[in-house]
Specification:
The structure holds two protein chains of two kinds. Chain A is of the alpha/beta class. Chain A is built from 14 helices and eleven strands. Chain B has two helices and eight strands, in the order ααββββββββ. Classes of the chains: A alpha/beta, B mainly beta.
Chain lengths: ~400, ~130
């Protein structure tokens, strides 16, 4: 891979809004809260910022609003006097991770210094069926959606084949949801803070066999933002800058049926490989990871495809507690998409905010002891886009 | 779904017609006009599939998207055609009898209708052999 001479980049401020069904708050309200929160955390003002990158999947379908970059900058008070450049980034549910990547490029290249990366989605202003149709547009509309495919349906087909090939069980899938709800119960911003049992998952209604409703992430409102800066000046703003060790992206076929292997997200495998190469790290060096568990099967595939266990053993290591806080590789300490919630455009940023809190040692009851290096894994669609970042306390 | 958007692909949807790259020999369904292997060196031509297929994986959709709600529960599957490509379609059968490896063949069926005043669209589903 081409190695470029670029500046090191660090995260100097982070913020997540509460995630959930926020009937009383608008799209712009929640984003402004996130942006202001991140700037306050970093101790910077609008005059210090070079630009904004905002992940948003479908403002058009969820709130009938496009031109999101301009709206966000305007209502954040960064347009009328400062005229800051603000860019919306879209890659379905990977929009947030991809927005972070653009902000890193802006700083690493030397084009900008202090830059904001955010993500926002307001999903509860429409009915569930409209929200489902909006989400389904992340798949191949003409050749999957038009045949009746839904997102749970696509991931259900991954799950069915994973069970067939590797003897993964419904109980093992349920363990993912149980763990993520447990972690979510210790996260004050999480949409669901209740603990659940394997039995409750298995008794919940079937959405698309073998996935129950408790195997699925919810529909969520939420926004997240963070501030990145050149590593050389990061200490001016914070005692604990969190350094970006790798940013990587890979893409694959838009439709699930065109993949080399239905049970492997090659985009995840390749993005992870690129991230490990860029950082000169291996899966053994990673202390914790936020993965894209839009469905329980997605977490199982992710921990396999990122290299934390052999293909086919994701269910087994989950059942054995290796992915719990205190286990060999804690996965989704925030509660993941399942319990923390999944405002699609915000998720990739929220994952990075969680890892930053963990590496700073400020994650409260869900703190992973001695966490030094963390990873985020953000997926668009059924695996057509994967974005992986590696973060570290040490430069 | 607008009339034009469906009409453009009518040939492919009604007849299981995809494409074939005469350079590398790969078959495509849904059709592709750019071969991912040969790209601009590829020689793409239409191909009518023989229709024999096998279920690679499947699910039973119980909570459906708009336009499919009245059809639930239905079997959605990835089908591998004899010539190699895989596609997403519905299997017209009792959800209880579907299985991975099931041999299927295509049938012309009504696929859906987004709303009462929208066009009814037709296409290819599969049935057990």
């Amino acid at each position: 891979m081409k190695v470029l001479v670029m500046r090191d980049v660090a995260i100097i401020g982070v913020y997540n809004t509460k995630f959930g069904e926020m009937w009383d708050r608008s799209f712009r309200d929640i984003f402004v809260e996130a942006g202001v929160g991140a700037l306050e955390d970093a101790g910077v003002s609008g005059e210090d910022i070079g630009g904004l990158y905002v992940g948003n999947m479908s403002g058009g379908q969820f709130v009938e609003q496009e031109h999101i970059g301009a709206l966000i900058a305007d209502y954040s008070g960064l347009s009328r006097n400062l005229h800051l450049p603000s860019t919306r980034v879209e890659a379905a549910c990977a929009s947030g991770g991809l927005a972070l990547r653009q902000a890193i490029f802006a700083v690493a290249s030397g084009y900008q210094d202090i830059t904001v990366a955010g993500g926002v989605e307001k999903m509860t202003d429409v009915s569930t069926s409209i929200a489902s149709s909006a989400l389904a547009a992340a798949a191949d509309h003409e050749w999957e959606g038009m045949m009746g495919a839904t997102f749970p349906g696509l991931y259900a087909m991954i799950a069915r084949l994973h069970m067939h090939k590797y003897r993964t069980t419904s109980e093992q899938l349920a363990e993912v949801a149980v763990k993520n709800h447990y972690n979510g119960s210790m996260n004050p911003i999480a949409q669901y803070q209740n603990r659940i049992t394997v039995d409750a998952v298995l008794k919940s209604i079937m959405v698309a066999d073998p996935l129950h409703i408790f195997d699925c992430s919810p529909i969520t409102d939420g926004a997240s933002a963070l501030v990145v800066a050149p590593a050389d000046i990061a200490h001016k703003y914070t005692d604990t800058p969190i350094y970006i060790k790798a940013t990587a992206q890979a893409n694959d076929t838009i439709a699930l049926h065109d993949r080399r292997d239905i049970t492997t997200l090659d985009a995840t495998v390749i993005a992870a490989k690129r991230a490990y190469e860029m950082s000169a790290l291996t899966p053994n060096d990673i202390d914790l990871v936020e993965v894209h568990d839009c469905f329980t099967i997605a977490e199982i595939c992710a921990i396999e495809d990122l290299g934390f266990t052999k293909k086919g053993e994701g269910g087994k290591i989950t059942e054995e507690g290796e992915t719990a806080i205190g286990g060999r590789i804690p996965v989704n300490t925030s509660g993941g998409l399942k319990a923390c919630g999944h405002p699609v455009g915000a998720t990739g940023i929220k994952q990075t905010v969680e890892i930053t809190h963990q590496l700073r040692g400020e994650a409260g009851k869900r703190q992973v002891d001695g966490a030094e290096i963390g990873m985020t894994h953000n997926v668009g669609g059924s695996g057509a886009t994967a974005v992986v970042h590696i973060l570290s306390r040490n430069r | 779904m607008t009339v034009a958007r469906f009409w453009r692909k009518q040939v492919h949807r009604y007849n299981l017609v995809g494409t074939h790259c005469n350079e590398c020999g790969e078959y495509f369904y849904p059709p592709r006009n750019m071969c991912p292997t040969c790209r601009r060196d590829g020689k793409i031509e239409p191909h009518k599939f023989n229709g024999a297929g096998e279920v690679v994986t499947y699910t039973v959709i119980r909570t459906a998207a708009e336009g499919f709600v009245h059809q639930t529960p239905f079997v959605l599957a990835i089908v591998k055609l004899d010539e190699g490509p895989q596609l997403t379609s519905q299997i017209v059968c009792d959800p209880e009898v579907a299985y991975i490896g099931m041999k299927v063949k295509p049938v012309f069926r009504r696929i859906g209708q987004s709303g009462e005043r929208d066009i009814i669209h037709y296409g290819t589903k599969f049935v057990p052999v």
